[in-house]
Amino acid sequence: MKIRTVFVGLAVATFSVIAMAQAPIVIKFSHVVAADTPKGKASVFFANKAAELTKGKAKVEVYANSALYKDKEEMEALQLGAVQMLAPSLAKFGPLGVKEFEAFDFPYIFDDTADLHKITQGPVGASMLAKLEPKGIKGLAFWDNGFKSFSANTPIKTPADLKGKKLRIQSSKVLEEQIRSVGGLPQVMAFSEVYQALQTGVVDGTENPISNLYTQKMHEVQKHLTLTNHGYLGYAVIVNKKFWEGLPADVRGQLEQAMKEATVYANKIAQEENDMALEGVKKSGKTTVYVPSKEEKLAFKKAMAPVHSKMADRVGKDLLQSIYKETGFDPNKL
Ligand code: LMR
Question: Under a CB-based contact definition with an 8 Å cutoff, are residues 66 and 40 in contact?
Fold first, then answer.
């Protein structure tokens, strides 16, 4: 009887040790957009790559559409270690106290993706990610989404068309100033609440890359979309620093490789996804899509140009100058 008990005990203990040895390291990856967006697809790509390269030692669980946390909460959850990985938009680092990231929010600061990559794939971007470390966060990569356009229920052809409109933005002081520069009323709101706010008229309009507008069906509650492409929205993929540094070195290396490949994938599909979303919006027939002329676009640029000098101190004049130097943008020469 006694021998049998010992035997059973040993078997249970052995089984638990084996089970423990085989239990994968779980990485919860939370985000706020739909699964069929550039970020949604790239996070699933990363999860699959991570499983492949670590041979199942790491399991990345992706939670889309604010299923776990809304905008602000997810950052807190990451710092507490309740979730291990996020890809917040760059605008969402200002409220964390890393105001430099709001440099990405300056209107028209990047002409195109080539300009953007000079920053996100160069030394300026790397030095910005390093600023997250004192917050207990490690920045792994920048993932593209795209350029934002304004939508509302009335036509938008000139900056004056936005005057007096309540426009939803992310929580960024630079974005607030950008909306004020065209006479609008900035309304900070979590992404998951925007559709309903537009539907019920709590806000009149908003700004989005088209992939976000389309996959949240915002175009169904907005009659007009003007392709202003006035600012950039993209992401930094981040992890809880303590968690990341505590990973076995081999697993961390494999995950870094998976992230490298996911970043190439993310940046390859971002434009395609936005193009497809625009086609979807057009096909829906719910929103009139307006392409501003060169002159009309210049009027938006000029109206928003003062944001650069007004908000330079917030992100740091030197940082702003180093971006201008890379991209050739000059808000005083429009
Ligand atoms: C937003 O709040 O508009 C964006 O940050 C959503 C996202 O993650 O693309």
Answer: no
In the chain, the amino acid numbered 279 is E
Question: For residues 130 and 127, what is the distance between their CA atoms, to the nearest angstrom?
Answer: 5
Going by the DSSP 8-state scheme, the letter that residue 184 receives in this structure is: -
Q: Which two tokens stand for residue 72?
A: 């602000």
Strand partners, 62: 29
Partners of residue 152 on adjacent β-strands: 224
Q: Using CA of residue 222, residue 225, residue 231, residue 234, what is the dihedral sign?
A: positive
Mean pLDDT computed over 312-318: 97
SS3 182: coil
Query: Is the distance from CB of 153 to CB of 204 less than 8 angstroms?
Result: yes
Strand positions, DSSP E, 221-272:
224-240
Residue with CA closest to ligand 1 atom 5: 89
65-94 tens-digit pLDDT: 999 999 889 999 999 999 999 999 999 999
pTM of the model: 0.93
Find the length of the chain: 334
Domains and CATH numbers, the chain: 2-326 (3.40.190.170)
Which residues line ligand 1 at a C-beta cut-off of 6 Å?
A: 32-33, 71, 89, 145, 170, 191, 212, 233
DSSP-derived secondary structure for 145-213: EEEEEEEESS--SSGGGGTT-EEEE-S-HHHHHHHHHTT-EEEE--GGGHHHHHHHTSSSEEEE-HHHH
Beta strands in 25-116 (DSSP E): 25-30, 58-63, 85-86
